[in-house]
Amino acid sequence: MSSTTPAVKKQAEKLPQLSGSDDSQAGILGLSAVMLGALAAALGRKRTDEDK
């Protein structure tokens, strides 16, 4: 038998609560940055095509 108390054993069995909200916010921010970069590249290319 182990010498741990029931409270310690219950605490050890509990899994940490992980929050996914930080990951989703980072994903949205990254996706927004990629979309803005693609838009800027498309507009920049369009301007260079019109100048030729």
Descriptive report:
75% of the residues lie in helices and 0% in strands. By secondary structure, it is an all-alpha fold. It has a domain at 25-52. The chain is rod-shaped and about 80 Å long. It starts with 5 loop residues before the first helix and ends with a helix.
Summarize the structure.
The protein is mainly α.
Draw up the topology in text:
Blueprint: H1 6-13, H2 21-51
N-to-C series of helices and strands: HH
Question: What is the β-strand count?
Answer: 0
Helix content: over 70%
Mean pLDDT: 76
How large is the count of helical segments? 2
Largest sheet: none
Content-based structural category: mainly alpha
Q: pLDDT below 50 for ≥5 consecutive residues: which ranges?
A: none
Rg over C-alpha atoms, rounded to the nearest angstrom: 26 Å
Q: How would the global form be characterised?
A: rod-shaped
The first-to-last residue Cα distance is 84 Å
* Proportion of beta-strand residues: under 5%
